[in-house]
Design a protein that fits this description.
Distance between the termini: 85 Å
Helix content: 10-25%
CATH topology of the largest domain: Beta Polymerase, domain 2
Radius of gyration: 31 Å
Strand order of the largest sheet: 1-2-3-6-5-4
Number of strands: 8
Largest sheet: 6 strands, mixed
Number of helices: 4
Shape: flat
Number of domains: 2
Strand content: 15-25%
Order of helices and strands: EHEEHEEEEHEH
CATH class of the largest domain: Alpha Beta
CATH architecture of the largest domain: 2-Layer Sandwich
Length: 201
């Protein structure tokens, strides 16, 4: 072993202190589930003053404002939003089927204010087989949207000028977006008659 500068053996290197493993990072707490928050503004106050208890809920959910209303005022309220609050565009309307509920058909209308660049959703529940008032006299574009809801859910729109299927054949049996329409279900009679096969699956 080589000697040090003064003829002595070199000092041994100091021993390294044992390292303590860093504590494991604690798992991050899950983010809280978003919930609807009350929505209050001058327009909502005016609507509540005009329609009272028929405004069942005014809330905002992850930045989206919505109103839940009694079905008796839905047509009048939608017209009010259009004519008095600048929601001049009907961007979409659809339905949701809750077969176990007393009022199983939920209608959803989405309105857009071009001048204010804001949207609002309006929801109302209807009984199975109950007609929903048409909006074709307020928005021409409601025509095909309402036909699609009729085609997929079987919802009839009172006052619609030409209510018939828009996606499926006129003779098709059943309404595919209802929860009681099985995924593998189809109108086998129509398939056999028009396609000449036993199954379209």
């Amino acid at each position: 072993m080589p000697e040090g500068p003064e003829g002595n053996l070199p000092e041994p290197a100091p021993e390294k202190a044992p390292t303590t493993p860093a504590p494991a990072a604690s798992a991050a707490a899950p983010a809280p589930k978003p919930v609807p928050l009350p929505w209050d503004c001058e327009m909502v106050q005016q609507l509540k003053a005009a329609y009272g208890d028929a405004i069942l809920q005014a809330a905002t959910f992850i930045g989206q404002n919505f109103l839940v209303v009694d079905r008796s005022i839905c047509r009048q309220l939608l017209a009010t939003l259009c004519q008095e609050h600048s929601y001049d565009r009907l961007t979409d309307l659809t339905a949701v089927h809750y077969p176990k509920d007393e009022l199983p058909i939920e209608m959803v209308w989405i309105l857009y204010s071009m001048s204010n660049n804001v949207r609002v959703r309006v929801k109302a529940r209807f009984a199975d087989g109950e007609e929903v008032p048409t909006l074709t006299d307020h928005w021409v574009g409601a025509n095909w949207m309402e036909r699609e809801v009729y085609d997929m859910f079987g919802v009839r729109f009172a006052g619609h000028p030409d209510l018939r299927r828009i996606l499926l054949p006129d003779e098709w049996t059943g309404f595919p977006l209802r929860k009681d329409y099985a995924l593998d279900k189809q109108d086998t009679d129509w398939v056999r008659k028009n396609l000449g096969i036993e199954s379209g699956q």
